[in-house]
C-alpha cells in the first residue's frame, strides 16, 4: 500500500499561484532568463516560439511560471481550439472581441500629414473605432487658426490637433498659441517629423541621424542610413517596424492619449 506523506512546507514558503495565459499568436511576453521579448508566433509540443521586433525567432519550453506578461509572472498554456484572438490592441488597451465600430462622433482629431495619420491608425486604430473618433490629416498647420474656426468646435464636437515639432519659440508653437477655443486642444511632440517619434532601436539602429540645417530632413536621414532616397519607401520601412506602442517614444504616446481623452470626454 502506498504510504501518504503530508506536505509539511509552511504556507508562506509555498510559491503563490500565477495566472495561466493561453499562448495566442500575437501575445507579447518576455522570457526572464534570457531577457528575450517577443510575440508568440506558434505553440507546439510543449514549446512556444517568439519573434522579437527585429524578426529573430527563439523557441522556449512552456514551463510553469516561465514568462513575464506586462511585468507579471505567468504560465503559458496551449490555447484552446478555435480562432486565436489578440488579448490587447497595439496601443496596449485590453482587446474587446467582437466590438463593433461606434458611429463617428462629431469631434475629430487632426494631425499634420499622412504619415502621422497612418502611424496613429496603426497603433490606436482599434481604440479609435470603438470610441467613434475619426483622424484626418491637414498637410501642415500654417492655416490652423482658420481651420479651427471653420470646424467651430463645441461641447459636443471637440477638436484635438497633434502638431510636429511643438517646442517653445518655434513657428508651430506660435500657431498653436493662437488657437484659443476651450473646445479645441492643440498638443504636440518635440520631433522634427513623426518619423523621429519611432524608437530607432525598433528599426535596427541606435539613434536617428543628425541632419545639417538647410537640408531636407527626410532625405538627409535616408542618405545617412544608406537607404534609397525615396521618402515614401523609407516611411513604409519605418511603419513596418512599428508593432505596438512599445515602438514609439513616450513624448508621442502621451500626447495622442491626451487627445483621445479630450475628444471623448
TrEMBL record:
It comes from the Bacteria. Residues 1-26 are annotated as: Disordered. It holds the Pfam family DUF3097_C. Residues 20-79, 108-264 form the DUF3097 domain. This is DUF3097 domain-containing protein. It comes from Streptomyces violarus.
